[in-house]
Fold this sequence. Notes:
Helices cover 41% and strands 14% of the residues. The chain is built from ten helices and ten strands. The chain has helices at 2-7, 51-64, 85-102, 114-122, 140-147, 165-183, 202-210, 230-236, 245-258, 268-282; strands at residues 15-18, 21-24, 30-36, 68-72, 107-110, 127-130, 151-154, 190-193, 223-224, 262-265. It has an eight-stranded parallel beta sheet. A two-stranded antiparallel sheet has the order 1-2.
Amino acid sequence: MGAIQARERTFRHPRLTVRGREFEWGRRTYLMGVINLTPDSFSGDGLGGDIEAAVARARLMEAEGADILDVGAESTRPDAPAIEAPEELARLIEPLEAIRAATGLPISVDTYRAEVARAALAVGADIVNDVTALQGDPLMARVVAEAGVPIIAMHNQRARQFHDVVGDIDEGFACALATARMAGIPDHSIILDPGFGFGWTPEQNLEMLRRLPELQGHRLPLLVGVSRKSTLGLVLERPDVSGRAWGTAAAISLAIAGGADIVRVHDVGEMRDTVRVADAIVRGRWKHRG
């Protein structure tokens, strides 16, 4: 059932153009490659502001088939130490400028602070990826609207009372959409993320993927980020994040069957192959060269 729903989905706005690249929702799944500029990333790939390493990773991800690069400078894992905007900016801006000069790919900035988003957009970011779905900073929606850029609004279950996985996510989506629309952000610029790993138990995370088709009622593209996360490590009994690629591939495949339009990943090359096979099955899109 999930595969049929993914193939037959309809969208309020079937296309989005970012930096001259067209994202045609429903045609295929798009790959977002993660570039962490933090020294304390949960995934073990934090670059700590190393500009050369950031540029090298961006170029590698582009060569491996990434469609978008997601650049962030503050860890959002549950136990991460808090930092302030000046430190986030100090980690972010110079590497982001260098990445922008090195690639033509669309770049999203992973931040919930309006001040940081504004600075990142000024040096070449194209999308804002907000893990608070526009609820963390009252100025964020205005910054996004004034810049005329897309927003990835992620439902964050942390500090919220739990009722039902899908119901809680839909409530968060509705709140994000109301905030976006009030600020003048058009629907065609909104991408929704259910927030795998943000305030859920492992069982609830798995339920989220199982029930992903139920989150398509807004008829907006869905981004799913499961890569290397702790729920997969628990299922696999692999505490080392480097051993979670196969589990990530399985979760991504099922997310695509459930309706994911973008998958956020650390291992672009491996997940490119996963996405191509999943799309061939789910969407019936592939080219036979035999």
